[in-house]
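#lab-general

N.A. 3:47 PM
ok so I finally got the sequence cleaned up, no stray characters, all 278 residues accounted for. can someone with queue access submit it? mine expired

B.Y. 3:52 PM
send it over

N.A. 3:53 PM
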Amino acid sequence: MFRYTRLTALRESLFWVLAIVFLAPFYFLLMTALKSDQEVITSSALAPPSSPDFSNFSDVVTASGNSNVLLGLVNSVLITAGSIALLVLLGSLTGYVIARSTRRWSRAVYYLFLVAIVLPTQLGTVPLYIGARSIGLTGSVLGMIILYTGMLLPLSIFLYAGFFRGLGTEYEEAATIDGASRTQVFFRVVLPLMSPATGTVAILAGLIVWNDFFTSLIFLGGSANQTLPVAMYYYIGSLVSSWNKIFAIVVVSMIPILAFYLFAQKRFIQGFAGGLKG
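B.Y. 4:20 PM
back already:
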C-alpha cells in the first residue's frame, strides 16, 4: 500500500522547483515577445506585459528581404525534412550492412565512423565550401540538404549499426524462408523494427539541422534561401537589438520543432515497446 511520507513530499517539492526552473526561460521568452518596444526597455524582464502586443509576431512574419521569417521557416522545414529523410535511408542501409557483415573491415569501418563523429565539422568548412561552390550547391536548399546529410551521416550510421547489432536475425531468417528478397526483408521486416533507432536519428538530426546557424550563414550567405536562424540574425544590429521581435521569432521557430519532437518521441516509445513485446 502506498504511503505518502515526508520523503515523498520532499521529492514532489524538488520536482516542482526543477519544473519552475526549466520553465522560467519559456516564461521570459513569451513575456518579452508580447511587449512593445518601449515596454521592453522600461519594464522588468520578469514582469508580464501591461497590454499584450501581438504585432511583434505579425511584423516578423510579414517582413521581407533577408529578415523574411516566413521564407526562412519554409526553408528550414525543407532542409530539415530532406536531411532527415536521407539520413534515415542511407544511415539505415549502411548500418545494416556493417552490422550484418562478418568480414574484418566492418568493425574497422564502424570505428572509422565513430572517429568522424568526434572530429569537429568546422575543420572541413573551407574545403567543403570550395567544393560546394565549384559544383553550384551553395545558396540552394538542395545543397544544404546534401551538406547536412554528409555531415551527420556518420552519427546516423553509428546509431543504426549499434541498434542492428542488438537485433536478432530470427525475423530476417523467417522472412527469407518465406521467399522474401533481401530488399523486402530490410524494408518490410528490419526497418519497422528499428523504430527506436529511427526516432533517435530523427530527433537528434532534426534538432541539429534546425538550430544550426554557422553552416547556414556560410553556405547560404547572400542568397534568397536563408534559414530561420539566419533570418533571426538580421534583427540583431550593432547598436540596437529588437529583442521583442527576436523572441517572437524564437517562439515561431519553436512551434514546428516541438510538434515534430512530440511526434517523434511518441513513435520512439511505441517502437521501443513493440521491440520489447517482440
